[in-house]
Specification:
This protein is mainly alpha-helical. It contains 2 helices and 4 strands. A hairpin with a 6-residue loop joins strand 1 (9-11) and strand 2 (18-20).
């Protein structure tokens, strides 16, 4: 059986230089040989999983940021004393009313 080398080019620490992966090719995709690490299907699956994990992790902070921006828009032109008098519950109720529109 003929052995094949992985066809993936690997960049070195210098931006303009690269070399071919030294591992044996074990997977054929579209006629090209890849090692387990550079298998395009595995790479695509891992990228998708990492993106989904990132999105889940940062969704809460995005929601909080948008909520604060909405609160700032609602509070424009209202003095600090008036806001303290209203309290946070009234502000949340006002935001819920605005979301309904």
């Amino acid at each position: 059986m003929e052995e094949h080398q992985c066809c993936k080019q690997i960049r070195t620490d210098r931006a303009f230089y690269s070399h071919q992966c030294p591992r044996k090719g074990t997977i054929v995709v579209n006629g090209k040989w890849y090692c387990w690490q550079h298998d395009p299907e595995r790479v695509a699956r891992l990228c998708k999983e990492n993106q989904e994990k990132f999105d889940r992790k940062h969704q809460a902070s995005r929601d909080e940021r948008y909520r604060r921006l909405a609160e700032q828009d609602v509070c424009k032109g209202v003095s600090t004393e008036e806001l303290e008098e209203l309290g946070t519950n009234a502000l949340r109720e006002l935001l819920d009313i605005l979301k309904g529109d």
